[in-house]
Structure formats: structure tokens, C-alpha cells
Amino acid sequence: MKQNYDILVVGGGHAGVEASMIASKAGCRVGVVSMDKQSIGRMSCNPAIGGVAKGQIVREIDILGGLMGRIADVSGLQFKVLNKSKGRSVWSPRAQIDKRKYEKKISENILSNKNIEFIKGEVVSLKIKNGSIRGVVLRSGEQIRSKTVVITCGTFLSGVIHIGDRKILAGRMGEAPSVGLTEFLVDIGFKTIRLKTGTPPRALKSSIDWEKTNKDFGDVVPTPFSLFTQNFNPKNEPCHTVRTNLDTHSIIAKNAGLSPMYNGEIKGVGPRYCPSIEDKIKRFEHQPSHLLFLEPEWFNSDQIYINGFSTSLPEQIQVESLKQIPAFKKIEFLRPGYAIEYDCISPSQLKATLESKQILGLFFAGQINGTSGYEEAAAQGLIAGINSARAALGLEQTTIKRSEGYIGVLIDDLITKDTEEPYRMFTSRAEYRMMLRYSNTETRLFKKSQNNNLLNKQEVAVIERRLKDRNLIKTKTTNSITTKHLKTFQIKQPMPIKDYIKRPEANLKNVLEKTSNLPQGYKSKKWSFLEALDDIETEIKYEGYIKRHLQEIKKQEDNENLKIDKNTNYSLFSGLSKEAIEKLNFVKPETFGQAGRISGVSPSDISTLMIYLLKK
Questions:
Q1: What is the full DSSP assignment across 77-143?
Q2: Could you tell me the fold of the domain covering 562-615?
Q3: Which of 40, 91, 375, 476 is placed for a possible disulfide with 54 were both Cys, Cβ 3.0 to 4.6 Å?
Q4: CA distance linking residue 382 with residue 165, whole number of Å
């Protein structure tokens, strides 16, 4: 076996990038194995980062030492906080991204890192000894030794692209699939599944009648993803919108049988919450139109991403249906939409650290775990990278709880509920979403970063200043609205600012301003200080909900701390249902809390399991 690494990362997508970068920060020697150096960090689908729940994930990646938010901030074309008209638990940052700039910056970070070495090749099998990983084997026959391995193959495992009746063996358009690794994983006992995802057409900018579209700008006062971004003054390039119509729908419905989604060619299950245009028209027949977003793929791009029109119909049908929209009368494609099928593993075979339950030192992250989306992949890559580095260094691994972050919800859902379709994160999946705001990540995860040495001294200093600002604002809210302000605030007697703020119409910034309680120099801090004001106002207004969350979390802690022997044979338990025995034996939950969240395990099964555990 040649060479010797602390960590080998298989794949250079969003998961692979975060895994390799965070491991390099720990001083580990990292090898990144990929078939194409030019594809590192590639944004293969939409030109955007963040969104509902995804924006929270990017902020969590950032506070845990990840790269995605920082590079998005210098590559953004437009920034917007979504859902500002709704409850604060669902406010989520999103940005349109210059793909070329983003990919270039990511690649530079990887290839210039002295602790990371790029290895051109395709992994087809693993070297395992006594239940522990020892390295990988490339298609060339070369064997590479490593203490740990992180597999982040994305959609490349046995990937097949579908455009109508055309089939192309590929991991992404124009890139060869990875063949052989799935078979190896199955041979050593892994359960795999087949999933499907898709992407819309890319249109030539000059073929669109822009006068017949509507402009959609970002926020006037933009919010960055990274807490470490300084002097934030990004572009505000518009996206444009159009709507489909009944003529568009008629053509699609008439030709739906030509879509491999409907004629049986595609066996993999697609994402329920990111449906193809064929799915939308079938499932929402009553809708006369659907909104499409026209997004530039880079600054001054001649290539436009038609967001909302994911499809695997034949190319001529895609063109014909879109030409029914006034702005698209002369539309020309640079690339048609397509669907892609690929292999992934059942993620319930992993621990909360993303390490395999059966092979020590082997980690999985990204779409190979059944997820969709850049952000979900990057989050998993980060956790797998942190834990593979700690395993290589002989340190205790770390996890994120459901109550600590969306990353914790993501991983816990994957390893307990498994997935039958590509998993996408939503705020509704997080039972503690009122506490998991994008604007309070430093209060939730800073200690985790410090305990695992994920931030450097300068970054720690930035977070400490933010926490100091928060404490200063909190102190100001304990001051009272005095007698001289009674008329201004239309109240009959003095009261603490924090009590007045609980009124729905009250705004913390305005109240502090009118009572001369805004700290000096706050204007120079711009977005950071304004964000802290908003977040503390949220804490005050939703104090009752947050207290309830904290009480629930405290109740659950005992269950999460109750460990279950990984060798437990649930078939020997009397009183468990057949489904529970099957699910528990397959998943092998690490804790009693995890057991209670497994699909198919009922409350009566949990009672039976609790009796057994208490006896032990």
C-alpha cells in the first residue's frame, strides 16, 4: 500500500470540501480522491445557497468552522432573508451565487492547503482489517493507506441520466459515473437504495424576452451567511419571474408518458418536496399556473437557470411547453433538464457521528446518505470531517443534538427514520425551531466549536465580541421606560423595556432609541448589531415558547443519555411487535432516545424496551 494519510476523502463536492477542510484545520494529513480536479466544489444544480432551514444550516456550518458561508458571501449576486412576513422561527437567509466565482474560491482553498493533497482516481473498494478501515483501492489497482475514510460520492455511484428515452451513464452531465463501489459495499453487508433527483433546463439569456418578466431583487440591507464577514456590501442583481399557463400544462400532461418518471424507466424514488414539473401538474391539477424563477448562473451570465421547471421529458417537449409562455416564445436551450438515478446507502447504518456502525473509521456524508441539497451535504461533510479527524488523532468524537441545531435534526432523522426519498431539510422537521434561529447560532454552538478547536483565535475573538454585544443589549432591556416617556409609549406607568417589548406592535430598536438606551457606536456595527437586536427581541417576545422547549429538552435528556448495547438482539424480547424487532435489529440505536424516534417502533414497543433496559 502506497502513501499514508490520516484521512482520505472520496469525492470533491460540497460534503468532500467541508470534510477535507475541517480535518486539515486539525493538522491532519488529508487526501482528496476525485476523478476530476476541475469539479471541486461544483454547484451542479441551482445557483443559490441557503433558503428555508437551509440558511440556518449554513450559519451552523459557519460557527463550526466550515467554509460554505464564507465563500458564499464573497460570491453572492443577491442576498435575501426569506419569510420575514411570517413567524421568526422560519426566517431564513438565502443568496443567489456566482457559480464560477464560488467554485474558483472553493478550489483555491482546497488546492492551496498544505495539509491537503489531491489524488486523481476512482475508488472501487476499501481495505478493511479486523472491522477497521485501512485504506482504499483505486480502479488503477493502486492502494492508498489511511487511518480513516470519508465517502462523499454524491450522485456518482452507478449514476444514470435520463432525458426522455435517452440514457447517459454519468454522475453529472458530462462527468463519468463511479462504478464498482456500490457492489463492494453490498458485498460487505451494506444495504443500499436507489434514488432520483433532477435539474431544470438552462436557457440562453438572449433568447428570453425580458420585458415580459418581473424583476425580483434582494434585501436593501443584506445579511451575510458568515459571522466572520466584514465590510459586507454585495451586489443586488435581480432575478426574474414568469408563470406557466394552461397551454404549458396541456403539452406536459399530453406527453407525460414520455417522461421516464412515468413510463417505468426510472426505478429510483424522487424528492417529494422538490417535484418535477410533470409531478406538479399531476398533483396540483387545480393550479392554473406555477411560478418559475429565472436565475443567472454567474455575473453577466449568458446561461439562465429556470428554477421550478425540473423535468426529464424529451428535450423537444421541454422547449415546446416553455414556448407557450410569452417571455419564452423564442427560447433556446444551452442544456435540457434531466433526471439522474444513483445509488446511496441506508443512513440508519450510521452512528450520530456519521461513522459506520460496522466498520470503525469509515464515514459517509452527503447525497450517498440519501439527502438532497448543497447545504445538507456540506453539513454532513463537516461533521464527518470533524469526527474522522478526531478518530485519526485518537480523540473522542462529537455530535450535534436535535435541540442544538438543524444539523442535529438532519443527522438524527437520517439515522433513525432512514429515508425512502431524497431527504430535504425544512423548518417543520425541527421540533425546537423557535430556539434554532439563524441569528443565534453563536449562543447554541460556540462552546461546541471551542471544545473541538474548530475556530482560530481571530474567529473566537469575533464571536466573543458578538456575545458581548448581545449581553449589552440584554442589559439595556432591563432598564425602565421612565415617567417622561409615558405619553410616547401610551402607557400609564413606568415598566421595564423587556416587558413592553412583549407587545406585538413593539420594536426593540425603536424603543431603545426613544429611551436613549441604544449603545454608542452601534451604527458602525451595521448588520451584526441589528441582527443581535432582532434576535433578542425574538427571545423576549417568544419567552413562553422557549421556556416550554427547554422543559421538553430537559425531559428528553435522560432518554438520550441511556445507552443501548450495540450487540443487543431484539428478537429475544417478548412483547415487541414484529416490525419493531425488524427495525431495531437493523438500525441498532445507540440510545433509548434514538430508539423512540425509529419509524415503526410504537409507544408500547418503547415501554417494553424500557422495562428491559431498567432490568439490565
A1: EEEEEETTTS-GGG-EEEEEE-HHHHHHHHHHHHHT-TTEEEEE--EEEEEEETTEEEEEEETTS-E
A2: DNA polymerase; domain 1 (1.10.150)
A3: 375
A4: 38
Please give the pLDDT value at position 421.
Answer: 84
CA distance 252 to 259: 9
CA distance 493 to 480: 10
pLDDT tier at 398, thresholds 50, 70, 90 = very high
* Contact yes or no for 333/315 (Cβ under 8 A): yes
**Complete DSSP assignment for 41-90:** T---S-SEEE-TTHHHHHHHHHHTT-SHHHHHHHHEEEEEEETTTS-GGG
Measuring CA to CA, which residue among 197, 137, 144 is closest to residue 368? 197
Q: Region 587-603: what's the mean pLDDT? A: 88
Distance CA 234, CA 237 (A): 9
Higher pLDDT, 592 or 524: 592
Give strand pairing partners of 4. Answer: 145
C-alpha span between 193 and 177 (Å, rounded): 16
Q: Where are the beta strands (DSSP E) in 346-490?
A: 362-364, 480-481
Mean of pLDDT over the chain? 92
How many residues make up the chain in this entry?
A: 616
CB 275 within 8 A of CB 312: no
Q: From the options 2.40.30.260, 3.20.20.210, 3.40.718.10, 3.40.50.720, give the CATH code of 202-341.
A: 2.40.30.260
φ, ψ dihedrals at 407, nearest 5°: -60, -40
Longest dimension (CA), the chain: 82
- Helix (H), strand (E) at residue 166: strand 166-169
DSSP 448-470: HHHHTT-S-HHHHHHHHHHHHHH
For residue 526, what pLDDT is reported?
A: 74
Is-contact 444 405, C-beta < 8 A? yes
Q: What is the DSSP letter of 430?
A: -
- Phi and psi at residue 424, in whole multiples of 5°? -125, 135
Per CATH, the homologous superfamily of domain 2-153+191-196+342-451 is FAD/NAD(P)-binding domain (3.50.50.60)
Task: Spell out the alpha helix ranges (H) of 155-301.
Answer: 181-187, 246-254, 277-283
Report field, pTM of the whole predicted structure over 0.90: yes
How many alpha carbons lie under 13 Å from residue 515 in its C-beta half-sphere? 26
Distances (CA, A) of 257 to 12, 164, 272, 363: 36, 9, 19, 40
Could you tell me whether strands 362-364 and 143-151 are parallel, antiparallel, or unpaired per DSSP bridges? parallel
Top CATH class of 457-545 equals: mainly alpha
Tell me the β-bridge partners of 242. Answer: 292
Domain ranges of the chain: 2-153+191-196+342-451, 202-341, 457-545, 562-615
C-alpha cell at 565: 448495547
At 524, is the pLDDT very low, low, confident or very high (cuts 50, 70, 90)? low
Q: How far apart are CA 237 and CA 348, in angstroms?
A: 42
Q: What are phi and psi of 188, to 5 degrees?
A: -95, 10
Return the SS3 of 342: strand
SS3 content of the chain, % helix, strand, coil (to 5): 40, 20, 40
pLDDT tens digits, one per residue of 117-139: 999 999 999 999 999 999 999 99
Do 376 and 12 contact (CB within 8 A), yes or no? no
Is residue 1's pLDDT more than 60?
no
